[in-house]
Amino acid sequence: MNPVVGLDVSKGESQVQAFISKGKPYRKGFKIPHTLVGLNELVEFLEEVKQKTGIQPPVVMESTGHYHTPVVQYLEDKQYLLIIVNPLISFRAKSSSLRKVKTDPIDASHLCEMYYKEDLEPYKKRGIHLLNLRNLTRQHENITGIFVQTKLQFQSILDQVFPEYRGVFGDLYSIVSLNMLRQYPSSDDILQANEDELTDTINRVCKSRSLKWAKDKAQGLKEAAARNPFEKTVYQSLILSLGMYIDMLLQYKEHLSMLEAEIDALAKEIEEYNIIKFIPGIGEKIAATIISEIGEIDRFNDSKKLVAFAGVDPSVFESGKFRAIQNRITKRGSSRLRHALYMAVRSAIRDKRKVRTDERLLPRNRRLREYYDKKREEGKPFKVAAIACVNKLLHWIYALLKSKTTFQDID
After folding, report:
1. How far apart are CA 25 and CA 105, in angstroms?
2. pLDDT at 62 over 90
3. Which of 1, 110, 16 has its CA nearest to residue 55?
4. Distances (CA, A) of 115 to 10, 110, 111, 146
5. Number of neighbours of residue 60 by Cβ within 10 angstroms
6. Which of 118, 177, 182, 325 is least enclosed, having the fewest CB within 10 Å?
7. How far, in Å, CA of 3 to CA of 108, rounded?
8. In this model, does residue 146 exceed pLDDT 60?
9. Per residue in 224-259, pLDDT tens?
10. Which region, left, alpha or beta, applies to residue 118 given φ > 0 means left and ψ of -120 to 50 means alpha?
C-alpha cells in the first residue's frame, strides 16, 4: 500500500480525501475547519489511515497564500510529512480531464492522484527568522506602495492650494516640510505670520539644523507665498484634504521607519544576509528581500531550480520542426524576488561616468558590468542583457550561499 491524504485548502476550512493506493480512495471525503477541533479531527483521520495501511501517509496540499499556514504549522508540530504543490502544477493536473468539473472533493482527489503521477518533493521548512524577515519585507513593500499613491494624491491637492511651496525645502516629504505645511496650509497663512514666528516653528520642528538655516527657510516660505497664484483658497475642502494627506504621510513614514529598523535588526542575525550584502550592487534592503524570498538555500538542489523559482528562466516553445528563437522569461516564480534582483542589477551595472555620492558604500560590480557589456556587444537590447545579468547573479548567490563564502570581485 502507498497511502496519501489530499487537502484542498480554502479560507478557514479544508476538504480532506485519502487514497490507500493508486486509484483506491479511502472513505468519503469530508471537510474540517481550521480550528483546534477541526485540526485534531484531521490528525485522528491520519492516524486511522496509518493503522489501516501500516504506513504514515504524506499530506499533499496546494500553496494558497496564507490560508494553508495554520494547517502547515499544526501538522509540522505533529511531525507529518508535508508536500506543498505549486498551483501551476496542480492546475495542469486538473486540466488533464476531459470533463470541466470543479468541486472541493474533486480537487482533493486530484491532489492524491497527482501524488502517484508526479515526482513531488517534500516540503522543506523555512527558518523562523527567514519567515519573519519575509513578512516584514513584504509589509514594507505594501506600505511603500500605499505611501507612493498617497504622495501622488497629496501633490494633486497641493497643486491646487500652494504650488509654490515646492522647492522651499529640499525634501517636500521631510518631517519639517510636512509639519510646516500642516500648520500653514495656504499662502495666506504664511503671509499673515511674521518671519520670527516661522523661524521659531521651523527651529522647533527641526532642532538638528542651525538657526540661520531656519531663518533662510522662513524667508523662502515668505517669498513662495508672495509668488503663489492662490493667495486665498476658495475651497476649504482642499485645505481639509491636504491636512488629512499630511497626517497619512507622516504616519506612513513612521511605520516604514519602524519596519526598516526591525528588518535591519533581524537581517543581521541571519548568516545568508551577511554573505550576499557584500555583493556590489546589493544594498541592505535588497539583500533582506532576496534572502527572505529565497528562504533556506537547501530547498534547491541546483542553481537552475533557484533561477526557475525567480521566474527568470527562458520559456521553451517547440512544435514539430519549429523552434522559437525569441523566448520570453517564464515569470512564474516569485515576483518580489525577481524585482529585487532586477533592481540590484540596475545598481550594479550603472554607468561608471555617473558616479553617485554613495559610490563608496555601494560600488559598481565590475564582473557583472563586464558581462552586461558583453551581452550588449552581442546586439542584445538593454532588458535582455539585464535579465541575463539577473540570471548570472542568481547563480553567484546560489554558489555563495551553498559554500558560505563571500563575493570576490576583480580589480
Report:
1. 12
2. no
3. 1
4. 20, 9, 6, 41
5. 28
6. 325
7. 14
8. yes
9. 999 988 766 667 899 999 999 999 999 999 999 999
10. beta
Domain ranges of the chain: 4-123, 130-266, 271-403
The conformation of residue 315, written as its DSSP 8-state character, comes to P
* CA angle (311, 313, 318) in 5-degree steps: 120
Rounded to the nearest angstrom, the gap between the alpha carbon of residue 322 and the centroid of all alpha carbons in its chain is 38
Q: Where are the alpha helices (DSSP H) in 209-363?
A: 211-227, 236-267, 271-276, 284-294, 303-310, 335-348
d(CA 230, CA 157): 12
* DSSP summary character for residue 96: T
C-alpha cell of residue 344: 540590484
Check: pTM over 0.90? Answer yes or no. Answer: no
Closest of 294, 336, 292, 338 to residue 133, by C-alpha: 292
**Confidence (pLDDT) at 255:** 96
Question: Which CATH number describes the domain made up of 130-266?
Answer: 1.10.287
For 181-197, give the secondary structure using H, E and C. HHHCCCHHHHHHCCHHH
For domain 4-123, the question of CATH label 3.30.420 is answered with: yes
Question: What is the C-alpha separation between 276 and 121, in angstroms, rounded?
Answer: 27
Q: How far apart are CA 392 and CA 238, in angstroms?
A: 51
Closest CA to 276 of 128, 387, 369, 399: 399
Cell numbers standing for residue 188? 495666506
| Cβ(24)–Cβ(1) below 8 Å | no
Residue 60: alpha-carbon gap to chain centroid: 26
Tens digits of per-residue pLDDT, 173-182?
A: 999 999 999 9
- Backbone φ and ψ of 33, nearest 5°: -80, 155
Q: To which residue does cell 500553496 refer?
A: 63
In the chain, the amino acid numbered 271 is E
At residue 217, what is the residue type? K
Average pLDDT over residues 273-290: 89
